[in-house]
Amino acid sequence: MRTSIATVSLAGTLPEKLRAAAAAGFDAVEVFEPDLLACPLRPAQVRALAEDLGLGIALFQPFRDPDDVDAAVVARTRERLRRKAALTAELGCDLVLVCSAVHAGAVRDDDELAAQLAALADVAAGHGVRLAYEALAWGAHVADYRHGARVVALADHPGLGTCVDSFHVLSRGDDPDAIATLDKLFFCQVADAPLLGMDVLPWSRHHRLFPGQGGFDLARFQRAVTAAGYDGPVSLEVFNDLYRQSDPRRAAVDAMRSLRHLADLTVPGTLPAAPAPAGWAFVEVAASGPGAPAVADLLGALGLVRTGTHRRGDVDLWSAGEDVQVVVNHRATSERARLSSLGLRAPRPHLLAERARELLAPVVHRPVGPGEAEIPSLVAPDGTWVQFCGPAPDWRDDFVPTGLGPAGEPSLLAVDHVALPQPFAGFDSAGLFLTTVLGMEPGELVEVGAPDGLLRSRAYRSGDDTVRIALNVGPTSATLRGRPLAAGHVAFATDDVFATARRFAAAGGHVLAVPANYHDDLAARFGLEEAFCDALREHGLFYDRDDSGGELLHFFTRAVSREFFVEVLQRRGGYRGFGSAGTAVRLAAQREHPAG
Question: Which residues participate in a divalent metal cation binding (predicted)?
Answer without folding.
Answer: 134, 165, 189, 237
